[in-house]
Amino acid sequence: MTDPELSPAAPAGGDGHLQAHRAHRHDDGGRYGSAVEPASAPVIVRALVARGSGAELRIERVRLPAPGPGEVRVTIRAAGVCHSDLSMVNGTLAARFPLVLGHEATGVVAEAGPGSRLRIGTPVVLNWAPACRACWWCRRGEPWLCADTTAPTVPRGETDDGVPLHLTLGLGALAEAVVVPESAVVPIPAGLPTAQAALLGCAVLTGVGAVRNTARVAPGESVAVVGLGGVGLAVLSAARRAGATTILAIDVAEAKRDLALAAGATDFLLSDDRLAKEVRARTESRGVDHAFECVGRAATIRAAWRLTRRGGGVTVVGMGAKDDMVSLGALDIFHSARTLRSSVYGSSDPDREVPVLARELVDGSLDLGVLVSGTMSLDEAPVAFDRLARGEGARWVVTLD
Ligand SMILES: [Zn+2]
Ligand SMILES: [Zn+2]
Asked: Which ligand lies nearest the alpha carbon of 148?
C-alpha cells in the first residue's frame, strides 16, 4: 500500500536508482537480507536539506527508496528541531552532505516492506538508535550502547538531481516521509498531541531517562540543571515528577526563567560568577545531590561539577565537541568523591520506554506543553534553526498535518 499524498517517482531509465538503493542495503551489512526487489516504487518527498556546512537550508525534493525487507515508510506528522541538527550544519559534528536534517519525529506507517510486522496506519515515534539486540551491550541490557551504533549521517536515497543523499542519524525526519528499518520505529497509541509526541523520540526520552535511569533521582533530593533547551526542560519536569524537592534551573539567558519555572523548577539562577554561592545558599552549603549538564561544553561540565555536593553525581547529557577538554584536579576528584558519568539517549531502551512515556502523556502525568514553543510548516523550518542558534524558546516543532 502506498500513501496517495506522495508522488511516485518516475521509473528511472536503466534502473540506476534501484541499483543505488540495493548498494545502500548492502551497506547495512546484510542486516535486512540480500537484494530482494522492492515491490513498490521509490517516492519523491519534500525535505529540509543542507548542501554543506554553513550552507543555507532549503526545502528540496528528494527521492526515497521503496521500503525493502524489514523496512517501512513513515509519513511524518511532526518533527522537532534538536540541537544535534544544528550541530550537523554548523560544523560541531562531522557530517556528510547533501544531508536531510531531523531525527526527532512522529508519524504513521504508510508502507511496509516484505516481512514487516507493522500494519499500515500504525502511529509511531522514530528511534535514532535502533538496537541490534545481538551485541554484547544489547545482551546485557544496555541497548543505548549498542555496538551497531547509527552513524551521525547515513547514506540513503538521492536528491532530485541525482546526487546521493545522507540522512541525519539514519532518519532525516524533517521531511514529508522517511524510509527506515522497522527497528527504528516504536508504535505508540493513537490520538497523542503530535507536536509533543515528536519530542518523545529525542529530547524527552533523553531528559527523562537521564533522571530516571542514569542518575536515579530519589524523592527529597536536590537537583541542578545547567542549560535549558528542550532536553534541560525535560530534565526539570522529570526531576519534579521523581519527587526532587530542590530543583535549580540554570541558564545564561534570563528569558528562560518562566519556561523553567513552568517546567517544574523551584528556582531559576543565572549562570554568572555568583552561581556557586546561590546554589550553596539553597542546599545548606553542601551543593546539589545531582547536577545535569545539558549543554555539551567543558565550561558547563566544570560548572556542574562544582555545584555538586561531596559524593553527589554529575550527569553529562549534552553532546560536545571532541577537542573540548574538561580539566579537573586530581585531588578534587579524590576528595569530592563525586561521580561523573554521561547519559546516552537517556540510558534507555526506546522500544520499552517510549510507550511508557506516551501513556504518561495520555494520562496527563507527563505534561510536555511547556516544551513546545511553537509549531511551523516545513517551509518555515529554517526559521526554527535560526531561533535555536539564538537560544530562543524550548523546542520548535515542524508539523505536517
Ligand atoms: Zn536530538
Ligand atoms: Zn546491539
From this structure: 2
* All three cell numbers of 106: 512522529
For the segment 105-116, the average pLDDT, to the nearest whole number, is 96
Set of cell numbers at residue 137: 551491550
Query: pLDDT (tens digit, 9 = 90+) per residue, 149-206?
Result: 889 999 999 999 999 999 999 999 999 999 999 999 999 999 999 999 999 999 999 9
Q: Please list all protein residues whose beta carbon sits less than 5 angstroms from ligand 1, which is an ion.
A: 82, 84, 202
For 347-357, letters b (16+ CB in 10 Å) and e give: bbbbbebbbeb
Using an 8 Å Cβ cutoff, are 130 and 150 in contact?
A: yes
- CB-based contact 106:125 (threshold 8 Å): yes
CA–centroid distance, 326 to ligand 1, in Å, is 23
Q: Is 91 helix (H, G, I), strand (E, B) or coil?
A: coil
Distance from the alpha carbon of residue 115 to the mean position of ligand 2, in angstroms: 21
Distance CA 199, CA 372 (A): 9
Contact 214, 347 (CB under 8 A): yes
Distance 96 CA to ligand 2 centre (A): 24
C-alpha distances in Å from residue 372, one per residue of 1, 196, 400: 33, 7, 15
Mean pLDDT within 326-354: 98
What is the chain's Cα-based Rg?
21
**Total-model pTM:** 0.88
- Cβ burial, residue 231 (10 Å; 0-12/13-18/19+): buried
Separation of CA 151 and ligand 2 centre (Å): 14
CB atoms within 10 A of CB 334: 8
Nearest bound ligand to the CA of residue 203: 1
> Measured in angstroms, how far is the CA atom of residue 288 from the centroid of ligand 2?
35
Quick one: cell of 33? 537480507
